[in-house]
Amino acid sequence: MAGNGNSPKSCKRTDQRTEAIVQHAIALMSVAGVQEAARYLRRFNVAPETIQRIVGNGRRRLVPLRGGAR
Asked: Could you tell me the pTM of the whole model?
């Protein structure tokens, strides 16, 4: 079934891409505000409930929850 797009490898790439988009939106929110971050996420077809969770928590989030703190 190689090449069908459902392999764990392709899912991992998608998750990494989504993670990068979300991390960028969080950074954008701190500079340009909630509306710009939400607009950015919509541009990349992030699910509305995910957008709400991100921008709703944005004011309380100082650093990304995973992978960002070092």
From this structure: 0.63
Average pLDDT value for the chain? 76
Residue ranges per domain, the chain? 9-56
Residue 24: closest CA among 43, 45, 41:
41
Which one-letter amino acid corresponds to residue 25?
A
CB distance 23 to 10 below 8 Å: no
Collapsed DSSP state (helix, strand, coil) of residue 35: helix
Q: Which residues contact 11 (CB under 8 A, 6 or more apart)?
A: none
CA distance 68 to 52: 21
Query: Alpha helices of 1-70 — where are they, by DSSP H?
Result: 8-32, 34-43, 48-57
Question: Is the per-residue pLDDT at 51 higher than 50?
Answer: yes
